[in-house]
Design brief:
The structure is a homotetramer. In chain A, helix 1 crosses helix 4 and helix 2 packs antiparallel against helix 4. Chain A is an all-alpha fold. Chain A is built from six helices and no strands. Chain A starts with a helix and ends in an 8-residue tail after the last helix. At the A-B interface, helix 1, helix 2, helix 3, helix 4 and helix 5 of A face helix 1, helix 2, helix 3, helix 4 and helix 5 of B.
Chain lengths: 115, 115, 115, 115
């Protein structure tokens, strides 16, 4: 069972039942996703980088991170659905592209910096 | 088979094979996700809101949107993995919370505005 | 009087007085900026695109937008300061580049789409 | 002379001369700002946190950071202008609020964590 398909179907039903499809144009959904990415940032921004993984294993941070990661995921499947993109297929395709673009022998230990 | 679990495992292997795990602390991964959300924004920002869904069905935009949505998804599963969050479970839990928090009879057609 | 210089100096003093400079590494400040961009998004995401400017002229939205735009501005001057960038000079330089890159006669009425 | 006012006036003229005002509704401008925040993230994401300030003092990173910080600043003044917000005034007001909300004696050395 594809859980991305399942989440997509559930978010579509959730939106239809509340008559919220009218608000779900792509730009608005993307801003909603940005809002959730912002909430995720606020949970981590002032924590020392080296302590986040440890604190993320304990409450209350564990639950809060789960909620915000979930919100990003839910708006992402909803946005992909509205745009007609099969997110699971797109992700698998991008992974294949990434494997070819960054051969293990040439990039090992080197961060692919943008400039 | 859970495709979020599958993508998570593949991204972990992808990172390990390239010795990139050293770069994947939560803040850096979140910034990488922000970078991909930014690329997604750049694809849509100047398109008329009412034309995006139509154009998203045609090339080259269809493939470009798929790639950027995929990049957001891949960094999201990677970030959740590093933080120890079961993303599929968290998303299902958040959907349940959303259904209780926004009963269909009381919120129908009303956008849940923040203030 | 440069108000960007003034805001930069005030944010530096604000941070030093609270012993918060220790938290202000570039990645953390950028995540804080992302958090504020997210809050700005949440104010606008479900409003009809054509109504935002009108509503922005009235309370309570006018004040809320001012607060979130201000937060983005304050973290932006702080981040530039920590990175050693003269923000006013950089903005003027970028405007000059933009004028040369997009000559009025060739781009008039055409959005510069990314692909 | 207020440089935020000056940048605002120049961005308005820049937009009018190119007949781009038609594209500058608030949601689209905010997505453009998100795009630039994303480019800024991509410059820093894989750099070790402790090395960014040092590298930011040298080329090519110094110029690249200046450009992306400038882009964020330019879209920020443009968005504030379209929304009718006096950005310099809003930032000064927010700083005053911050000083009252976080008295130096009570918050010294403590990051204001969100939960």
């Amino acid at each position: 069972m594809s859980d991305l398909r399942d989440l997509t179907d559930q978010m579509r039903a959730f939106s239809e039942e509340r008559d919220w499809v009218q608000f779900h144009d792509p730009k608005s959904l993307l801003l909603a996703l940005v809002g959730e990415v912002g909430e995720l940032s606020e949970l981590m921004q002032w924590l020392p980088a080296g302590e986040i993984v440890g604190r993320a294993a304990e409450e209350p941070l564990a639950s809060r991170l789960g909620e915000e990661l979930a919100d990003v995921q839910l708006y992402l499947v909803r946005l992909a659905d509205v745009l007609g993109v099969d997110l699971a297929e797109a992700a698998r395709l991008k992974l294949s592209t990434g494997r070819r673009r960054f051969p293990t022998e040439t990039v090992r230990g080197e961060a692919p910096l943008k400039s």
